[in-house]
Amino acid sequence: MKKLLQLAIAALLAIPMTANAGVFDIHVGGICSTNFGPTLGQWAGETSVNAPIDQRDSMATATSQMANTLNTFCTGSNLCYVYVYSNGGAVMSRTLALFSTSWNIAYVAAAASNEGGSELGGTGFIGEVFGGCTLAGHIGTSDHRNGWNHNDSHGIVTGMVAGNGFLAPFIQSSVLPGHDDGAVSTASAGGYASTTGRGTICEAAPKYTNHQAWYSCEYGSLNHTQMKLKMICNEGGLTTGCP
Amino acid sequence: MRPRRKQPPAGAWPGRWSIAIAVGALVVAATVWWHTARAPLPAASARAALPAVSGGSPGAARVAPLPPPPVTPYPVHGTAGLSSDDPLTAYRKANIYPPTSRPLTKDQLDLLKPNTRHEVERPADHGLGVSYLFTADRYFVIADETLTATLEVRRNGKPIPATITQAYAAVLDPVTHDEHPIPLAFAPSGSRLAATFAPAKLGLPRQAAIGMYVEFDHGAGTQRAHFDFQYTPSGGIPARFTGVFHDVIDAGSLVIHAGVEVTSPGHYVIDANLFDAADQPVAWSRFKGELAAGTHDADLLFFGKVIIDANAHGPFHLGQLRGARYAPGRDPDLEQMPSFTGSFTTKPYATDVFSDAEYDSAEKQRMIELLGNDRTHRGGAGRGDAPH
Lengths: 243, 388
Description:
The complex is a heterodimer of chains A (about 240) and B (about 400). With about 240 residues, chain A is α/β, with parallel strands linked by helices. Chain A contains seven helices and six strands. In chain A, helix 6 links the parallel strand 5 and strand 6. The N terminus of chain A is likely disordered. In chain B, strands 2, 3, 5, 6, 9 and 10 form a six-stranded antiparallel sheet that branches. Chain B has a five-stranded antiparallel sheet with strand order 1-16-15-18-19, with no helix packed on it.
């Protein structure tokens, strides 16, 4: 009887670990980063994950690491929300397009996404705006738009927010078509299927499948750097330090 | 004086009440587990309609939950304005069709012209009304194909002459960064300068990213520009389309089996578009799966409801059939297959052979269940804050 009781107690302790699905909030940083940085969104009862994605050298490396992160946290009875910033949006899109794994991802929430590549690629502004890493020189519009099928999102919705604020050295905005946040155009941040200049991410024009504008058609005073935490703030993950 | 509670004999623990409580708790826990963490619903046929009644233990009388109200799919071009659907509704709207078999319209140029580049004309660093466009005729170059790079320089919208001061190609090495410039020769071609580059001469063993660099003088200053392209040498081609196809109707969907001769086994992604008898785009499909060495079929599913919703009529024909082997751990990690340049037309098929049932799968049901249980994140339905 004692062994039976021990078994029952052990089962009692073990069941909640499988019964309650863990919710993980995956944070993916931008170009030249190796993680999201020190500030993550926090939601009660959930676990925030600072994804170790190396975006200094190649999209190939970043894609593999993104898949590893999703394999770790987003399978079984777990559920993930994925918060991506800047080139992290491209990494996530590419990962979904290449892998067949059925990750449990509720949605991707993208701030200032470089999913469509930046026209600054191939210009002298690239290092100044994005940083001096190798990959920064190879995230142009053709690199990203030709590189994979952005419409294959595993059926996962990507919500997007975009800025139109000024970012030093300012003149680079003349290279970016339509509105921009100083680093990426609204065409990229809004998930549009072409580089044609856009006034806001609400404009009616072909977008990649399941890409949507959330919360605001444009944050006119926020630049690329300031946009980093905007989606997380909108989602209630941060209450201080929000732009 | 308050009487002390009688202590049970040390050797008698656990007592009957303790055992009863523990067993009761176990029953409760098992019940909770049964309702929250049982295995995903049995894999449904891709053609099965959404289940109206949930499962239950044999013999147990359970009240079936009402089925969720039907939703309409998001427009093919995306939603103009802000999307304000809650995450569950958004997921359901996004998954009326399978993730890799969806509608295609003539405006989806990224899928209809997958090898068309995306550079745009941009102002020169020094301004003065000078703009330039440095681009090429393709992004993917296979085997003996050549790439033609073009440079067009304008002032106030009108072409102006430019002098090339440096022009070279470089095979990008993401590990060593040991890149050697290969001179390029630009020559006038209409109002532009053009250079044809044949990467086959480089004798590369496998897939490579190659950068094209140019520096030019436009009379008011010097400008540099750069773009990359992907090259697959003959020896690095992982697989080829055989040109053998056959088409069938499977559970209300059109499936085109595309023959593939595989040299390098691995995980493949293969894309194709479907056009109707009037040559109008109907659907795109993507095969994602493992292919062993040898000759195999890659199954391209064109979902019945996509064809029905497009009011498309056969015979159908394939277009833009292309693919790549995904080789994680290598860089570049996508080894390209030569695109299929021939044609394939299906049997005519009557419209009524296609099903208009919504897509369903165990994965979809699992996601609906998970999303239904989580109310913390509101996605597009969140309140956000005032625009800045």
